[in-house]
Amino acid sequence: MTIQQINDSLQNLFGNMGVSLSALTDEADFTKDLGLDSLDITDLLLQVEINFGIRIPDEDWWMLKTIGQLKAYLVTETFSGISQPQ
Predict the structure, then answer these.
(1) Which residue numbers delimit the Carrier domain (predicted)?
(2) Which of 24, 32, 65, 77 has the fewest CB atoms within 10 Å, i.e. is most exposed?
């Protein structure tokens, strides 16, 4: 998966949640900038797991607060092959 494919997939996920594509910057905080609540974030991360074929361990969820952090995490996970579903 390329970085462009990661970006496109994330844009689709956020767009399906009703988030404006113009708000999707790497610095955008899920809660403060995008207006997502805890249920929205849980749904987002579950959709990320499904769409990217990875599992995000519970201990990693707390550190994913911005789009940039999520992208960096996905690059690491998709390019390393770690955390693939069993």
Answers:
(1) 1-78
(2) 32
Token output for 61? 């969820």
Please tell me the predicted confidence (pLDDT) of residue 77: 87
Q: What are phi and psi of 66, to 5 degrees?
A: -130, 165
- The DSSP code for 29 is B
Identify the three-state secondary structure at position 66. strand
Which homologous superfamily does the CATH classification assign to the domain defined by 3-15+26-80?
ACP-like (1.10.1200.10)
CA separation for the pair 32, 8 (Å, rounded): 22
pLDDT digits (tens, 9 = 90+) for 48-60: 999 999 999 989 9
Q: Where are the domains of the chain?
A: 3-15+26-80
Long-range contacts of 60-66 (CB under 8 A, 24+ apart): 64/30, 65/29, 65/30, 65/31, 66/26, 66/27, 66/28, 66/29, 66/30
Is 26 catalytic? The answer is no
